[in-house]
Design brief:
By secondary structure, the chain is an all-alpha fold. The chain is built from 20 helices and two strands. It is globular, with a radius of gyration of 21 Å.
Length: 393
């Protein structure tokens, strides 16, 4: 029996339950912000998001994540665009990704983008997430928040080697106890209970055009680099017996965004950060996203009228710790190219572009690939190449 045949596709145990929280630090704040700031329907957002998580877990049999499209979410929040514009942008990027997958352009992209560039994108994303975790999340409750975050970090480090009680579950339990003791208003939570169902709506031509220009176009480079190419590579790193090609990832990415926005859902992607986060917190099968999705379904179905109030009681410093450990796991992947100084310099340059430049993902993807291609042919010399020449002479 092969390893792939022996490994379960779905498992529901304490480790999958712990792994289910590996991406919550990224997803939950964005979803809540879009609901509160841009007026998205809470029930539609959570039910659709949960259903897509469950479908992805069942389809792939590995902890393949479903995440809100970050560039789209950031632009929506900055410009306070209407929900129908977000739906229009989601439909456009879904159709675009399906076209790229069907024509084989995604396979071509995966072949021509070097590993050093992929690792640079992942390193840059990890730095961005770590900065967000430490600056925005950990200090959101002042000195108490920093203390709570420190306690959670100590617990994760102290319990990381034992398997009986997964450390992430302990950290989540600490967050729940903190919320119950200091932040829960039972009267407010009681008024938040109520049945919710998603609503169908087709955006008009104007909203689709606006979404294409304002949302889909800036999002596409990030999705190509991180959601497709880097995620496919991460599946080969973490689940070599069930590695997923870029065409399949692009196909499910496209289908999710042709369905979800029609029911009020947030446009989504697969992301290497979420995959690493799930895996780092213990998930090894599709059971983790199924569990994770079920929690969002419950929130959307039962607490839609006051969803923002329900999720706000959970302490942001705990989400920050989860996000920080996801970021560290993502940044550590750069070790694959650390022995090749030329590749390492390219990865660092790409990461710098991701962190410091507008549209850094597309700049890093294109410039890093071109630099690697030119260095291989001796047309340019990266610092690593120069050092190797000096050592040889």
């Amino acid at each position: 029996m092969t390893r792939a045949a022996a490994a379960p596709r779905l498992r529901f145990d304490r480790h999958e339950l712990a792994g289910a929280f590996g991406d919550v630090g990224t997803d939950l704040p964005l979803l809540v912000a879009l609901i509160v700031t841009c007026g998205l329907d809470a029930a539609s957002v959570c039910i659709t998001f949960g259903a897509l998580q469950i479908a992805t877990g069942l389809l792939y049999g590995i902890p393949m994540p479903v995440q809100p499209l970050k560039a789209m979410a950031a632009i929506m929040l900055a410009q306070r665009l209407a929900p129908e514009v977000l739906a229009g942008g989601g439909l456009v990027i879904g159709a675009t990704m399906l076209l790229l997958a069907a024509t084989g352009l995604l396979d071509w992209l995966a072949r021509v983008v070097p590993l050093a560039v992929v690792r640079g994108i992942q390193l840059g994303l990890g730095i961005t997430l770590a900065t967000l975790a430490t600056k925005e999340y950990a200090g959101s409750d002042g000195a108490t928040g920093y203390l709570l975050a420190a306690v959670c970090v100590v617990l994760l480090l102290a319990l990381r080697r034992q398997r009986r009680v997964p450390a992430p579950l302990v950290v989540i339990a600490v967050g729940v106890l903190y919320a119950l003791a200091l932040r829960v208003d039972l009267a407010t939570l009681g008024g938040a209970v109520g049945l919710g169902v998603p609503s169908f709506a087709l955006p008009g031509a104007a909203a689709i055009a606006q979404g294409a220009l304002l949302l889909a176009l800036p999002q596409l480079p990030l999705s190509l680099g991180n959601s497709v190419v880097a995620t496919s590579r991460a599946t080969r790193d973490l689940f070599p017996e069930r590695a997923v090609g870029v065409r399949r990832i692009g196909t499910t990415y496209g289908l999710m965004n042709l369905v979800g926005p029609l029911f009020g859902g947030v446009p989504v992607c697969h992301g290497c950060g979420g995959l690493v986060g799930f895996h780092g917190f213990g998930a090894r099968t599709g059971g983790a996203p199924v569990i994770y999705g079920a929690l969002y379904l419950l929130l959307g179905l039962a607490f839609a009228p006051g969803l923002a109030e329900v999720v706000r009681v959970f302490p942001m410093p705990v989400l920050g710790v989860v996000l920080f450990f996801e970021a560290v796991a993502l940044m550590s992947l750069v070790r694959d190219v650390s022995q090749d100084r030329s590749a390492l310099w390219i990865a660092l340059a790409v990461a710098g572009a991701v962190v410091g430049l507008p549209y850094g993902y597309v700049v890093g993807l294109v410039a890093g690939t071109a630099l690697s291609w030119a260095a291989d042919r001796g047309w340019v010399r990266t610092p690593g190449v120069v050092e190797e020449i000096e050592e040889a002479t």
